[in-house]
Hints:
The protein is of the alpha+beta class. It folds into two domains: 4-171 and 269-349, no CATH class; 402-511. The protein contains 13 helices and 18 strands. The protein has a nine-stranded antiparallel beta sheet, with no helix packed on it. It has a seven-stranded antiparallel beta sheet with strand order 6-5-4-3-7-8-9. α6 links the parallel β1 (117-118) and β2 (142-143). The relative contact order is 0.11. Residues 4-23, 194-208, 355-368 and 373-379 have low confidence and may be disordered.
Amino acid sequence: MSNPKEIETLEQPLENPEPINEQDPAKIMRCDMFAYSEPPRCYSENTSKEELVLEHVLEYKRQFKVIYDSLRKLLLAPKNERGIRKFICTTIRPTKLPFTELYEWEKCAKFVSDYIDYEELEEPDKFPSIIPSPANILEWQAGDAFDMSIVLCSLLNGAGYDAYVVHGTAPKRITLKDESLMDCPFSLDINDNEDRDDPEVDEDEAMMQDEKKDKIVPIDDFNVEFIINPQSNFDASIAKANADKANAANVAATIIDDDEPDYEKDDEFGRNRKHCWVYIAKGKRELSESFFIEPSTGRKYTVEDAPYFTIEAIFNHKNYWINMDPSKELIEINMDFEFDTNGDWEYVMIKNDEKKGEDEEENPDDDEEEGDEVANNEEEVLDMPPPWSPKLFVNKDKFVELCPKGEKTLFYKKCKVEFFSDCRQVDGLVKRVSIYEDYKKLITKEVRSYYKFRRDKLILRRRFPYEFKTIEHYEQSEKTNNWKKMIQVDDRYRKIYFYHHRNKDGLIYREE
Length: 512
């Protein structure tokens, strides 16, 4: 059993918080500021049930180190904003927010990745020193991987999914949210042939194809072709290979091409970087497969193709499961942790149904006295206390803004994406995608600007800077502008395509 004095000291609130140091991480500064306020009692006190569970958890942690591994650290009872230890399972609070956009896992994961600013861990190879409540994370709109995973898991469980928080190790690019070498998750392919709606161009192409067909000379199968100067195909291939090799050597010697990703040094932490993500098990909400969700980006990964290294533990608001062999690769781990019979996982809390089943087998129901003993045994089972975090809440105005301060910029491979909340920009801009030719993002290939709520119904503008070309797409409207698409090249021409309902004269295309 753990020392009761130790638990009492851990439960004492911070009556006189230490002064804030400007060099402290942003998360610690936010918690220190919160310590000066007057939060609800759940932050500074534990109920009798929470104290009982906390005592069991600390004792379990001590016995785990004695029996299994004395050097392994378990994230079972971290401190909250007020320095009070809480069982981490009780930090998850399943909540269904009053926004229909959050009822599906895709939109919910995208909301968490956009709404909360991602922060790195204080020490990449260690657990965070503080695990705040998900209510404060949504209020601050900032947190690390553990904070974002707990918030996402709370929302997914509230929406009816079977979600779990997973913590283990991951590569550097995942822990730093570095997507500069990853493909952009948004579709960049626009099947837009600028002259596909031009009837004149179509007629010209048809005429050219007919002329090519007329120029084809039929070949007589019985004519014998006389070769005056015979040549060897093998010698020709050798000569071509030598010429290509010499040309490549010449290009390498005369042309400087630095279009390649920046060189990165080996990670000093190796495979020891701590990280946290979310696991959704199949079954509920008609899910046919289980998969992982990266909370910092909202990306989905299958269990077989996930970029993470290892899994140390999995937990939700009901129980905590410990992987007994954290050195296993991710693909080698048995993810059926809840019904494991091979000893790959160890759970912290005993389920009521399991305890009840064991008691029913040992004590027949025909004996009244033994039935009373079963009831007493059921009462002695340690139940999970309710979540200690206050009710999760998202302000409607902040939800509409989508991200902190209404703006957000993400970098991908040869691409930059800028997000703006609706009606925040004067011209109605909501998203700008810049596509580059090189990895260093110096040569701009195309800039796509997406708009909403404009009077002229403009929804997309594509600019090609090195071609001095602009393509604009308009939404269909019978009252205002009836343009469908406009293509303009500076000082050369402008083509305008109209919707069919523009005029009774049937004008659908005009070139200036």
